[in-house]
Write a structure and sequence with these properties.
mainly beta; 16 strands
Length: 286
């Protein structure tokens, strides 16, 4: 009998005086004890990003009633960032880091650190923390950002992409999330990425049962690669020619570990195109 224990993969941090201290205080509280990992290589199983490879990646530090947590996000226009609802819900404000690579280095060249107030955070009204349904939120930035090689939005899927399941396709997930399943491990100092494969919905449902909805998209972890705590809300994209299209936002993994053969689960962005259009000024293409 399979158990359906799942965990959302934001990382809780302790209250602290400055962002620098915050990064040092990142602690794993949601993670259950796991057996020593057979899959020791590390995003788990990924590689360090090189500069400007992921200009749409955002780092998010949430302040919720004085304590903090860490997530990823993704720039989808010069004014809007998408993330997971479980990251944004209840935040008094969110610090958004754009154009970053070494996340602890707030002075990084060309990087933009912006604060988004609660009034500019929209969490999906039907987000349900019990079955992790509608795990999506949108942040309106306090200013339009200048697009450059370092800070550049990713394409949203089109309405015609919404008809495809992308099963078997190679995709790229990125984030500063934990790089292994060891208890107590913290976020990665550098942005990392992994190339993974989209798993058929039926296979994903075999593992997670009723938690998998048509609004999810899963990737395999069979090769020891996947998302982990701290990657929540961050992107998984597909490369098509020169362009990348956003397919998913990191949502949850098995509580047994990030890459215990259980799939990585994402919000399927194409399912929420109308919702995104409704809460932004973005035109979705057909
Ligand atoms: C990746 O970045 C980490 C942290 O800066 C560093 O320790 C490691 O050597 C890098 N790995 C490679 C292959 O460059
Ligand atoms: C959250 O915000 C409050 C008020 O600005 C501040 O005192 C506190 O240090 C912040 N906590 C974190 C974890 O950023
Ligand atoms: C959230 O999901 C659970 C499990 O499916 C369900 O029992 C509950 O009624 C849902 N809550 C809301 C507010 O829809
Ligand atoms: C954010 O909220 C603070 C306090 O309510 C306010 O002073 C500030 O002007 C707001 N900033 C924006 C960009 O709305
Ligand atoms: C954006 O670019 C304009 C024109 O080059 C410049 O004046 C402005 O300061 C830039 N804004 C930011 C936030 O970098």
């Amino acid at each position: 009998m399979r158990s359906f224990h799942i965990i959302v993969i934001s990382l809780a941090v302790l209250a602290s005086a400055s962002a620098f201290d915050l990064f040092d205080d990142l602690e794993d509280i949601s993670f259950m004890p796991v057996e020593p990992s057979l899959l020791t290589s590390r995003i788990i199983g990924g590689k360090n990003a090189t500069f400007n490879d992921f200009p749409y990646q955002a780092g998010l530090l949430m302040n919720k009633s004085g304590s903090g947590s860490w997530c990823g996000g993704v720039l989808i226009s010069d004014k809007y960032v998408l993330t997971a609802a479980h990251c944004a819900k209840g935040a008094d404000y969110i610090d958004v880091y754009l154009g970053a690579k070494e996340i602890r280095n707030l002075e990084e060249e060309g990087r933009l650190n912006l604060r988004v107030n609660a009034s500019n955070i929209v969490v999906h009204a039907a987000y349900n923390a019990t079955d992790i349904r509608n795990d999506i939120a949108i942040l309106k930035l306090p200013q339009t950002v200048n697009i450059s090689e370092q800070i550049k939005p990713v394409d949203l899927p089109s309405y015609s992409d919404a008809a495809q399941d992308f099963s078997g396709r190679s995709v790229i997930a990125s984030g500063w999330g934990r790089t292994n399943d060891e208890p107590g491990s913290t976020i990665s100092p550098v942005l990392r990425y992994a190339e993974v494969f989209v798993q058929p919905e039926s296979v994903c449902r075999y593992y997670f049962g009723q938690y998998i909805l048509s609004s999810n998209i899963c990737t395999e972890t069979a090769y020891g690669q996947g998302i982990c705590n701290g990657d929540s809300g961050g992107p998984v994209v597909i490369q098509r020619g020169e362009k990348r299209t956003l397919l998913g936002l990191s949502s949850f993994v098995s509580s047994r570990g990030c890459v215990k053969c259980w799939p990585s689960v994402f919000v399927r962005v194409s399912y929420f195109l109308d919702w995104i259009a409704q809460h932004s000024d973005i035109q979705i293409s057909l």
